[in-house]
Amino acid sequence: MSDTSNAQALHVVGIIPVGEKPVGLAADGNNQVFVTNSGDNTVSVINTATDTVKKTVQVGIAPQSVAIDPQFGTYVANGGGAISVIDRSNTVTGTIATGVPPAPPLDTTRVAVDHFASRAYATLRTADRIAVIHTSSTPPHLGGFIDVPGPLGVALHPFHHHLYVTRPDFDTVSVLAPETGEFPLTIPVGRRPTGIAIDHERGRVYVANSGSHTVSVIDTTTGGVHDVDVLAPPIAVALDPRGDAYVSHADGTLRIIDAASHSVTATVPVGSAAVAGVAYESHSMHVYVANGADGTVSVLDLAGG
């Protein structure tokens, strides 16, 4: 079966109640998906074998984003400016203060981890900074800041350890070398870029331009940009192992961009309006989408995938 027919077969197979106003998702590769619930200051941990919530974890104020290190735990970027640390037993073991005052609950912070460099990076949009967390220390601690005007979405390249950072107020993605604090490249994309994901195998970066109807696809070798029309403002983007991109929209739909054709091959209704984060889980080969308006996560199955 081709990638295109697989995408067209994607369909909702379940709805999981979580917390209030879920926005961010991350899969840990071990049959768990973590969901940040910005409305009630919790993280829901979904068991992907049963598609039920196995635990609810109290974290900081208005959690927005979550990233997982396979060894050093789960990191939650809270709208209150702090980073919550969750261990492998899904218990909060610490809170890392960044000194940034509480901010409105959305579009102020994201987090990414670099396992091999033992670092986590949290964007602090209201402070024009990225916080650097040392993850392998006991306990993990704040290691300093990198000055970046208006950072939001962040994704890490696993080979050269560069950060790709969306800057919605500047309509750009900046490439950052964390060890030096230098910006080798700043790339113009669409209006108000937010979500971002890296396909390192194919040398591509996908950027959701929330102020337009496009996803920008960046060639990491040349820096060239190709815009894909996704017909509605995109919010977040996730990738599967084939390189297909799953793009969430505030109108309650998910669109799939085929890796080979760079075109939209399917539009799937997934839940309420205010659809936010999206994640692909490798064991179940399911896609999970946060429905912010009704406190649920939709589960989509790639039939025959």
Task: Summarize this structure as a short list of keywords or feature phrases.
305 residues, mainly beta, 4-stranded antiparallel beta sheet, 2% helix, 55% strand, disordered N terminus
Question: Can you describe what's shown?
Answer:
This protein is mostly beta strands. Helices cover 2% and strands 55% of the residues. The protein has one helix at 3-8, and strands at residues 10-17, 22-27, 32-37, 42-47, 52-58, 63-69, 73-78, 82-86, 92-97, 111-114, 119-124, 129-134, 141-147, 154-156, 163-167, 172-177, 182-188, 193-199, 204-209, 214-219, 225-229, 234-239, 245-249, 253-257, 264-269, 275-281, 286-291, 296-302. The chain has a four-stranded antiparallel sheet with strand order 1-28-27-26. Strands 2-3-4-5 form a four-stranded antiparallel sheet, with no helix packed on it. A hairpin with a 5-residue loop joins β22 and β23 (245-249). Mean pLDDT is 92; it is low at 1-6.
Neighbour order of strands in the largest sheet: 1-28-27-26
In N-to-C order, the SSE pattern is HEEEEEEEEEEEEEEEEEEEEEEEEEEEE
The total beta strand count reads 28
- Unreliable spans are 1-6
- Taken from the alpha-carbon principal axes, the silhouette is globular
Classify the beta-strand content into a percent band.
over 45%
Tell me the span between the first and last alpha carbons. 8 Å
Radius of gyration: 17 Å
Helical content (DSSP H or I, runs of 4+): under 10%
Number of helices: 1
Give the integer mean of the pLDDT values: 92
Largest pleated sheet: 4 strands, antiparallel
Q: What class do helices, strands and sheet pairing give?
A: mainly beta
